[in-house]
Amino acid sequence: MVLAILVAFLGSVLLVHGFFTDIWVFQFCLVIASCQYSLLKSVQPDSSSPRHGHNRIIAYSRPVYFCLCCGLIWLLHYGSLRISSSRFTLYGVALTSSLLLASARDLVIVFTLCFPIVFFVGLLPQVNTFVMYLFEQLDIHVFGGNACTSLLSALYSVLRSIVTVSLLYGFCYGALKETWEPHHIPVLFSVFCGLLVAVSYHLSRQSSDPSVLISLIQSKILPNLKEKNPEDPLSEVQDPLPDKLRASVNERLQSDLIVCVVIAVLYFAIHVSTVFIALQPFLSYVLYALLGTVGLLTHYLLPQVRKQLPWYCFSHPLLKTKEYYQFEVRDAAHVMWFEKLHVWLLFVEKNVLYPLVILNELSRSARELASPKKLDTEVGALMITIAGLKMLRSCYSSPTYQYATILFTVLFFTFDYRHLSETLLLDLFIMSIVFSKLWELFYKLHFVYTYIAPWQITWGSAFHAFAQPFAVPHSAMLFVQAAVSAVFSTPLNPFLGSAIFITSYVRPVKFWERDYNTKRVDHSNTRLASQLDRNPGSDDNNLNSIFYEHLTRSLQHSLCGDLLLGRWGNFSTGDCFILASDYLNALVHLIEIGNGLVTFQLRGLEFRGTYCQQREVEAITEGVEEDEGCCCCEPGHLPHILSFNAAFGQHWLAWEVLVTKYVLEGYSITDNSAASMLQVFDLRRILTTYYVKGIIYYVISSPKLEEWLANETMKEGLRGCGERNYVDLDPTFNPNIDEDYDHRLAGISRDSFCGIYLGWIQYCNSQRAKPLNSDKDSPLVMLCFGLCVLGRRALGTAAHHMSSNLESFLYGLHALFKGDFRISSVRDEWIFADMELLRKVVVPGIRMSLKLHQDHFTSPDEYDEPAILYEAISSHQQNLVIAHEGDPGWRSAVLSNAPSLLALRHVLDEGTNEYKIIMLSRRYLSFRVIKVNKECVRGLWAGQQQELVFLRNRNPERGSIQNAKQALRNMINSSCDQPIGYPIYVSPLTTSYCNTHPQLGHILGGPISIANIRNIVVSTWHRLRKGCGAGCNSGGNIEDSDAGGLSCGSGNGTGGDSHQSSSSHGGTTGPAPPHSYQPHSLGTSQSTQSVQSSLVRQSPARASMASQSSSYRYSSSRHSSLRTSTTGLEPCRRSSTSQLSLRTLPTSLQLRLGSTSDPAGPSSSLSSHSIPPCKRHTLVGLLGNDGVCSTVTDPHSQLHNHHHHPQQHNPTISTVRRDDISYRVQLVDVTQVLENINLPKRKELLWPDETMRLRAGRTCWRDWSPVEGMEGHVIHRWVPCSRDPASRSHINKTILLVQVEDKLVPIIDTGVIELGAEV
């Protein structure tokens, strides 16, 4: 109603005041009528509508545009009448002249009269798209912002920029009002410059989407706002991404709080020093030379020599990564020296060179811009603030092409057209906008020329053959269209995929108006009835979409860091890349580029694409190195150089291969036909046997077993099974499938069942903490028998009692695998007493049997031993996720980076009906990275939308989606939003932050925060204390103290009561009786005990051998203060202030530390030696193995040190208790963590016990991961070449087992720093 009144009112006002005469009055009335009619009935189809059918926003588009144009006509007309003088000029053009405003008014009038044609062709988008585009362009080109992700984010970004300019304007205006002396800049202007750099840095690091920031604020203010519903089946399934994003934003805000203050103070100090005035003009020349050199090296030379085909001349990269020649990548990408160089050059360029250049131009141009000859103080202060903010934010966010813009501007306005310059600051501001449009024009022309080149045109239809010659005479018009579309950032799309190009309507960088993203079909969003009957979502595309979702999460973790490392070459806002591997082909669209953040969208294509898609995949994966052609002959080519034909062909492509071995974490997919694995009866019998054993394992290992055995309802239901001659004669049992089938009784009897499975029941029962009675007639055996009969009867029921038929058997197996149990027998109704038996026993049993059946093919007889089978099931339960792909837990496991997954897939797609066993293994995958011309992608997307929505071409074999290798037309068109394209997955807009990339953190250091600063200070303090201890002894150094791990003041008492080991030396005596460990008395030193138990956990028998071998090697390699001699190690120097006698140390260590010149009495000779207190911690490395022996030896040797006993140990004494261990370390390099070393198939290390092995690794940690700065206790150590197998490292490095909170972390010793011992 309001729009209708406005249209009528504004139209009548323009008509009354005589803006239109003659025939144009009729035309204007026609425009008014069309706007009024669109409010009554929206146009269908509309050329600018992004969707089929009714679009309510389109109904308001014409009236809104009409009102805007009429209002603009009035404003321009009013301005042309009121302005008489040209006050403001730019490059000789009077911006406020009445002639210019009148010309603009007439142009808008003509545009309004052309509304019918404009809306028919589709040159104006729907209103919300136009508003988002307008605000985004304003924020990018005026305020230096980034691309926007939604209309809300566009409004937020513009308001944020306006508020920032308003705050900075006051400082700039105040400074310009002061008196400027020739060789002095006002202090307030220096304050403005410091704040400008700091604020620009902060804004460049913030995303345009405020949703994560709002969510973070809500979580801090109202942490319990969302209450969980305990009855919700999805309450346990948590998506880790929102918490991860909030943590990243929180970390960046904390870092900015400190860094912005430092930046403001630093640049204020630089600017106030008048360096930008005193050193002119030499400073400007130096800065421009440095900027040109660093920019050329960082953004041109390094990316070119790292490309797959540098300069389209060489046949391989000139700088290769470590993974380039690897056939299969097994680890994360190795950081090369040139990647580190690229990061540091980029860091220096963004944070040093660009701010200095901008501040230099601010200092030189401020007075002139604010002078009455230019813009006056008020307008000059505004322009200085906007120009400085725009340039700094652009340089921080996207510095790729900034060096070229700055150098060209300086050269052009300094040497060529100096008289046109409006001060270099304003020149840079204008030229940055011009250059962005010129780059866009370049990409459009490159797309057009490569698409219509006659020697590689691919005609997809008869219309293409007609349009090709028809487009040749209109080349001039095509160039004009390209220029206009570049100015307004509109796509230039091929009409129906032909060689005729037309301009589409304006779009934001995000391109698509709809926030379309894939909703995976699973059991959480479908009806139960449909799950049981029709099995929705069973097509390959829906099931495979989870792999692209996981790929999106992997990119979220590492994409921003990889871009900064230069692994994707040069990048800018709106760039498009294709990731291609053996089966994954995804288009990655970079939308928002910030300082340390990237917002992207991933579009996954079908695994088994069409013929056209396969041809284009072959084009991007095939190599051109072997091409030897030159025109029509094949003379060959020089070594490492492309042939003439290959080089020429690469120049005429809208895409280029950047990297052939880009490493990213993902899942390798292995699918086997279930029909081939269960074809014969013997294989089905093996599966059924494992099914029964799985049920027995899960029921016995359940913590509710005793409750089930005591349940009266279950007892009553199983009473019949307890009869002596009981036999189940259900016809579903088959002698070909059931191993315990009794042929005499034609069924399954309790005797036949026990004859096969009683041994397995008893072994599983023996593994319980409190074993139960497992005799043949026990309730436990009866429960197992009842459950196993029920499980097999359910399998037969699901298979329609046709288990002998393979198809029916697979159908029943899949039904049970997804949890569809039909209890059809009255004898099985006792199971309803507790449905946990089905959920926690029978369902895991059928799923585990599938994995055990797979293992059977690799080692057929391995699982005949109960111990091996039990360990295998326990290991699979810990390390393997077995679930149906429709289960929400399957998606949660994949997104949580579960190491291995297994599922049984039933595929019903296009007439196929097959069952597959899907095995996923998390590993590092290798991708090819192909950069596609972004204007090619935008143009093809716009063409598809116009063809399918407006022209309604529903032909599945239309010419516009046929393969065109030079533009990858089919792959790009397939990636459009559905139903225009057919991607199997479209991700939501996802933001990747650089602080989640571990390798980048090792190069530049982690984020700066108060907590990290505190950790650094504490770590430095510990090292200073250790260094102090090393300095107290002659010849000591920090390396000595680092090896020890105790601080100078860690031992504060005498060590007379400490325990020592009785090493054999001298005479012999009888064995000493065992004694338990005694606590220390008050006032005595605990340092010896801490040392003795800090680094090793061993049995006493192993410790005696390790004390003579491993400890010596460890100490001799780490302790330079204890020099070796021909007789052993020299002791520390004597000190009158010592309180820790060597007599308190283990005897084996006393013999190595003391003088060996008196073999008759080593103890008496050693008792006179002592160690200074500040050096005691250096003994920790020497006591690594001896300390364990000392804690379990005969106490008589501790009370009578002057006697000599042979070293005797009681084998029944256990290893050192964890309570005795107080040696602490801090994790400093998480890349040294060995998270998969505990896998059962890896037998490199001998673990202290099996519980530790199961707890020490990714399989136990799940979502938890060790991070730098964590602290923990060392509870075990493996040393290279140790004689003791329990302490022997399988690699040439020492491995520590560190307890961090309740987790065990195996890590190489170079990845920790030693914090000392707590006493």
Name a few traits of the molecule:
single chain, 1319 residues, alpha+beta, nine-stranded mixed β-sheet, six-stranded mixed β-sheet, 23 strands, 10% strand, membrane, Pecanex, Pecanex-like protein
Summarize the entry for a quick read:
The protein is α+β, with helices and mostly antiparallel strands and 1319 residues long.
Beta-strand fraction estimate = 5-15%
Number of continuous helical runs: 47
SS-based class = alpha+beta
- C-alpha end-to-end distance: 81 Å
- Major sheet: 9 strands, mixed
Sum up the overall morphology in one term: globular
Q: What are the segments in which pLDDT stays under 50 over at least 5 consecutive residues? A: 1033-1221
Helix content: 40-55%
Average pLDDT level: 80
Computed over alpha carbons, the radius of gyration is 38 Å
Number of E-type strands: 23
Protein name: Pecanex-like protein
Membrane topology: Multi-pass membrane protein
Domain Pecanex C-terminal: 774-999
Keywords: Membrane, Transmembrane, Transmembrane helix
